[in-house]
Write a structure and sequence with these properties.
Layout lengths: L4 E5 L9 E6 L5 E4 L7 H10 L7 E5 L5 H4 L2 H5 L6 E4 L1 H8 L2 H11 L1 H8 L10 E3 L5 E4 L2 E7 L8 E5 L4 E5 L27 H13 L5 E3 L3 E3 L2 H22 L6 H22 L6 H24 L2
Parallel strand pairs: 3-4, 4-5, 5-6, 10-11
Antiparallel strand pairs: 1-2, 2-3, 7-8, 8-9, 9-10, 11-12
Helix pairs in contact: 5-6, 7-8, 8-9, 8-10, 9-10
């Protein structure tokens, strides 16, 4: 077994908020899992150089899904990796090849100026350099292979990457968020329900599928490796069930999206407070400041689902 996985802090929005991973095999072949944004590319290239990896050794750029904090830097990074192929979910690949709809949607949320500040210029990826990974497919890397499992719940275009040789699974956002600053009493993790494809039933199935792999650890994009996978699942399940109850509570109500999201957010904060205290973590003011963005987007995700489903 070779466990050469480098966790790279992409310095996205704040420190230890979003990671990318560099997987290096004994034969020298390597892959990036997650590419963050255009602004993170120099950070990724520096980590590659420090690991002793040359650009031509990068075989794959892999995105777990096409949300821009995972995939926004793909085209820019690909320019530096002449032998690399981008591996993506079938539903994600089309947005890499033609990102216009994705960019327009994000600009509508952030505004053009803020979008450029956070994500930069997102260029299309040549279709010839994209490989679609179906559920259960594999991609050779070194003397082993990476396994791709579709995991809906957070997004319909999401997969996780099982790496048996490293005894890990790269989970994207399918196995929650585990910020280092909150790991004080014991491991604490919570789910991401951000817009627009959250499906609580599928999220629960994806957690079970990840556990069934039997790896000793998981690498979370938000943030880094964790080892207590069953404890994490026990924390995630009731929080996802709560999110499902919120969707049911507000389903079909004739409220504007923004107003509904504002109503849901304090309910999510109470549930998150309960979950933190149950894990022995007493949240402080700086914790709530750190979690403000997650609470906002998680509430928006639940509001979106409640309004779009009859």
């Amino acid at each position: 077994m070779n466990s050469a996985v480098v966790t790279i802090d992409c310095d996205y929005l704040s420190r230890q908020f979003a990671a990318a991973f560099l997987r290096v095999t004994p034969s020298g072949e390597a892959a990036f899992i997650e590419n963050n944004t255009v602004h993170a590319v120099p950070i990724l290239l520096k980590a590659m150089s420090e690991a002793g990896v040359r650009p031509e050794q990068i075989r794959y750029l892999i995105i777990t899904h096409v949300h821009l904090d995972h995939a926004g830097g793909t085209a820019a990074l690909l320019k530096h990796c002449p032998q690399a192929t981008v591996l993506a979910h079938p539903r994600a690949a089309k947005h890499l090849i033609d990102p216009a709809k994705l960019v327009a949607s994000a600009q509508a949320v952030y505004g053009v100026d803020r979008f450029k500040e956070v994500y930069g210029q997102i260029e299309p990826v040549s279709e010839s350099r994209v490989r679609i990974m179906e559920d259960g497919s594999q991609a050779p890397l070194g003397n082993s292979a990476l396994h791709f499992l579709h995991t809906r719940g957070h997004a319909k275009h999401h997969f996780v990457v099982h790496d048996p040789d490293a005894d890990t699974v790269f989970t994207g956002d399918a196995f929650g968020l585990c910020y280092p600053s909150l790991q004080r009493a014991q491991q604490f993790i919570f789910p991401s329900t951000s817009p627009t494809d959250f499906e609580p039933e599928e999220a629960l199935k994806s957690i079970d599928r990840i556990l069934s792999l039997g790896t000793s650890r998981a690498h979370l994009t938000h943030f880094g490796p964790i080892q207590e996978l069953r404890r994490a699942a026990e924390q995630l399940r009731p929080q996802i069930e709560f999110s499902r109850s919120v969707v049911e509570k507000y389903r079909g109500q004739a409220l504007p999206f923004e107003e509904l999201a504002r109503r849901i957010e304090p309910e999510l904060k109470l549930e998150l407070d309960r979950a933190m205290r149950a894990s022995g973590l007493t949240p402080a003011a700086e914790d709530w400041s750190r979690l403000a963005l997650d609470l906002e987007v998680n509430a928006q995700g639940l509001a979106w689902v409640a309004l779009k489903q009859p």
